[in-house]
Fold this protein.
Amino acid sequence: MNAIRTKYAEQLKVTTFNVEADPELSADYNIKSAPSIIVKKNRNVVERIPRFIDKEQLETIIRYYL
């Protein structure tokens, strides 16, 4: 995630959190498993990925929404 955060710093915001340390936020986003990726655009959730994906797959998704 750090590489994605750095590469796309001017275009998007990458935020991470520990689901066990913040169960309330996990509930707010209906996160059932970790890792999970939630993509938001204009404050709306547009994509949910409830599993590990590699960097190339993640970049494909990011480019789609940019």
